[in-house]
Design goal:
Elements: E1 12-15, E2 33-39, H1 45-58, E3 62-68, H2 71-84, E4 90-93, H3 98-103, H4 111-116, E5 145-146, E6 149-154, H5 155-160, H6 165-168, H7 179-188, E7 190-191, E8 207-209, H8 227-232, H9 252-266, H10 273-276, H11 282-287, E9 293-297, H12 301-305, E10 312-315, E11 327-329, E12 333-336, H13 343-353, H14 356-366, E13 370-371, H15 374-386, H16 392-399, E14 403-405, H17 412-427, H18 435-445
Parallel strand pairs: 2-3, 2-4, 11-14
Antiparallel strand pairs: 1-3, 4-12, 5-13, 6-9, 6-10, 7-8
Helix pairs in contact: 1-14, 14-15, 17-18
Protein name: Carbohydrate ABC transporter substrate-binding protein (CUT1 family)
Subcellular location: Cell envelope
Pfam families: SBP_bac_8
């Protein structure tokens, strides 16, 4: 997941217990230690501060110092910190990043700790724990949350278009004509003269409200952009997951899906890449009424429902040619830096973050994300419902087993570079989908 909520200004430092700011303090003779912990999501900052407070209360010898950065600054600062030897004891990891860090020897394996403390990995949503084990069989994280993708829409614009919420729950799509899904997108699109996308006289060069918003070309991941369509069309990222030895970006199913999807831009139903990259983010554009609906990850649910002057609701992703919906199942975990001075304290904190004491008793009740522990997910659904948000369109994927594990692969940075250039070119109509042939060859060349 991207979890890339923008945060302006300097990093925010939060202290729990009696700790002080500054670098991590190694354990003293009596076992006391300050654990330096980094995260990037400002929306989740309060709940993990609460977990840190609870952790300190249960373990008064340990103090957690939390540092929060915005998404881009987070990874740049962390990379620099690894080089300079100033990395935190523990930090929130990402599935696309940890394999490279592990290969570089920057992360501490957790296997001995897990075995010693007999951590029950079966309490987490199926498949999540497996994502944090590298090719050599070493574990580097315990699941802390999970996410799926759904459609978030403006209820007023839906009402104006005469579309009923129950219709949104049963939409289907195909790469030939887009199915009922594209019909809804077209009808929700309105030009500056009030003409809808499916009406005669619609001017695609002067769109006031796009039927569906965009977050970009999706590079090689496309989590919230196109993954739900490609996978419901029977496509998979690689020959196996995790650790594919070849990717399938040149597969005809992928090509036809991307051709259909970018066709929404050509028809005027979805904003161009230039508009998307103009500086106004998808959330702000949706809040301003520029987009009638968007496809988004569950981690941003609360952000959308907190927008002023916009009432939202959620629908599941459309049913594809396979006869099923699809969504990536992604999740985060916390990594311990190999060079930490406080391995025991760091492990205690990581174990607590992955425990019912944090996930069920604190995180679930905050109604921000879905905790990784199965029983905590139920509590989170209830907390969202109490806040007036029906999140079943997100969890339906877990219930109906239409999730697909996020791709875990070596060379992800290089894959991203190649696919960003190629997908941006396709989305801006500088290239057609056949450019994926060379891109796929370049990606697969990374694996020998």
């Amino acid at each position: 997941m991207k979890r890339s909520l923008a945060v302006a200004g300097a990093a925010v430092l939060l202290l729990t217990g009696c700790g002080t700011s500054g670098s991590s303090e190694p354990a003293a003779a009596g076992g006391a230690a300050t654990i330096d912990y980094w995260l990037w999501d400002v929306g989740q900052q309060p709940q993990y501060q609460a977990c840190a407070d609870a952790f300190h209360k249960a373990n008064p010898q340990y103090t957690v110092k939390i540092t929060q950065y915005g998404w881009d600054d987070y990874w740049n600062t962390l990379t620099t910190a690894f080089v300079s030897g100033t990395a935190p004891d523990v930090f929130t990891g990402h599935l696309s990043r940890y394999p490279e860090f592990a290969a570089q020897g920057q992360l501490m394996p957790l296997d001995d700790f897990v075995a010693k403390d007999k951590v029950d990995l079966s309490i987490y949503q199926d498949g999540l724990a497996d994502l944090w084990v590298t090719k050599d069989g070493k574990r580097y994280g315990l699941p802390k949350d999970f996410d799926t993708v759904a459609v978030i829409y403006n209820t007023e614009k839906l009402k104006e278009a005469g579309i009923k919420p129950e219709e949104m729950a049963e939409l289907s799509w195909n790469p030939q004509d887009g199915g009922t899904y594209e019909k809804v997108i077209a009808h929700l699109t309105v030009d500056k003269n009030g003409k809808r996308g499916d009406e005669p006289g619609f001017d695609k060069t002067k769109v006031a409200t796009y039927g569906i918003g965009s977050n970009g070309s999706g590079a090689g991941f496309g989590q919230t952009e196109w993954s739900m369509y490609t996978m419901s069309n029977g496509w998979q990222y690689g020959d196996q997951n995790p650790w594919p030895t070849k990717f399938n970006y040149a597969d005809p199913k992928f090509k036809e899906t991307i051709k259909w999807f970018t066709g929404l831009i050509d028809k005027g139903y979805m904003p161009s890449l230039d508009i998307v990259n103009s500086g106004v983010g998808m959330i702000d554009a949706y809040g301003a009424g520029k987009y009638a609906m968007v496809t988004e990850g569950s981690w941003n649910t609360k952000t959308f429902f907190s927008l002023k002057d916009v009432k939202s609701a959620i629908a599941p992703t459309p049913i594809g040619p396979t006869g099923k919906r699809a969504s990536l199942l992604n999740g985060l975990a916390d990594n311990i830096t190999a060079g930490t001075d406080n391995p025991e304290a760091s492990w205690a904190w990581v174990k607590f973050l992955a425990s019912p004491a944090c996930q069920e008793e604190i995180v679930a009740k905050e109604a921000t994300v879905f905790p990784a522990i199965k029983t905590a997910t139920v509590k989170a659904e209830k907390a969202f419902a109490e806040a007036g948000i029906d999140v079943k369109p997100f969890t339906i994927h877990v219930d109906e087993k239409t999730t697909h594990l996020a791709p875990i692969a070596e060379h992800w940075a290089d894959i991203t570079a190649t696919m960003t250039e190629t997908m941006d070119s396709i989305f801006s109509f500088k290239s057609d989908v056949n450019a994926l042939d060379q891109a796929n060859a370049t990606v697969n060349g990374l694996f020998g």
